[in-house]
Amino acid sequence: MNSPTTDPAPIACSLSSVELGRREQTWTTLAAAALRAKIAIPSGVRLEFVADHDVAHALLDLVQAERECCGWASWSLSQTAAAWERVGLLESPERRAGKRSYRRSVLTRIRLIDLARAAGFRLDEIRDLVTDRQPPMAPGDRWRALAAGKRAELDARAAAIGAMREVLTHLAACRCSSLDACAARTAPGGDR
Ligand SMILES: [Zn+2]
User: Fold this and answer.
1) What is the 8-class DSSP label of residue 189?
2) How far apart are CA 124 and CA 89, in angstroms?
3) How far, in Å, from the CA of 158 to the mean position of ligand 1?
4) I need a labelling partner for 19 at 20 to 30 A (CA). Which of 33, 128, 133, 140 fits?
5) Could you state, in order of their start, the residue ranges of all structural domains in the chain?
C-alpha cells in the first residue's frame, strides 16, 4: 500500500463510521489468520500473507473495496507463490474453475524458500536446491554443496569490508600532506 504524501487530493475515506469499523474488523481477522510479515518500505507498508487460495481471495476483495473508498492510497497486490512459480521454484498449481488451487504443501515449500533466502542464496541456487534429483539426494548433501560456496563468498565479502574499514579509519584521521600521499599510504601493503 502506498500513501503518496505529495498528492494534493484530500486524504479522506468515504466510508461511514459503521462501515469503517466493519472494514477494520475484516482486516484484523484476516491479519490474525494469515499475516506473515509487516515490513515498512519507502512508499508505505508491505504486508505479507500466507499463500492460501482463500486468503488471496479475501485480500483481492478487500483491496478492491479499499480502492473504491480510499482513492488517495494506491494498492499493489503481489502473490509470492505466483512469483515463485514464474521463476521455477514452485510447480504451477492445479486450476479449479480457472483459479489457482494451492495445496498446503506449498506453504512448507515457501518456508523452505524463505529459509534459503535468509541464508543469502540466489534464485538459481535455490532452484538447484529444490529440484528433484535421481537418485534422491539427502537434505544434508544438498545444503552442503551450496553452503560451502556461499561461505567462501561471504568470507571474500567480509575481507573486502575489513579492507574498506581500514581505509576509512585512515581517512577519518588523515594528516597526509597531499591526496597522492594519501593514495600511496592507503594502497594495499601501504604504510598506514
Ligand atoms: Zn591520508
Assistant:
1) T
2) 9
3) 24
4) 33
5) 1-78
pLDDT at 8: 41
Q: Which segments in the chain show pLDDT lower than 70?
A: 1-15, 51-53, 56-57, 60, 67-80, 99-104, 189-192
Q: What percent of the chain has pLDDT over 70?
A: 75
For residues 65 and 99, what is the distance between their CA atoms, to the nearest angstrom?
Answer: 21
The CA 162 to ligand 1 mean position distance, Å, reads 18
Question: Which residue in this structure is represented by grid cell 565479502?
Answer: 157
CA of 159 to the centre of ligand 1 (A): 21
Q: What is the pLDDT of residue 2?
A: 45
Residue 90 burial by Cβ neighbours in a 10 Å radius (0-12, 13-18, 19+): buried
Give the global pTM: 0.46
Å from CA of 181 to ligand 1 middle: 6
Q: Which is nearest to 174 in space by CA: 164, 190, 185? A: 185
What is the model's pLDDT at position 192?
A: 56
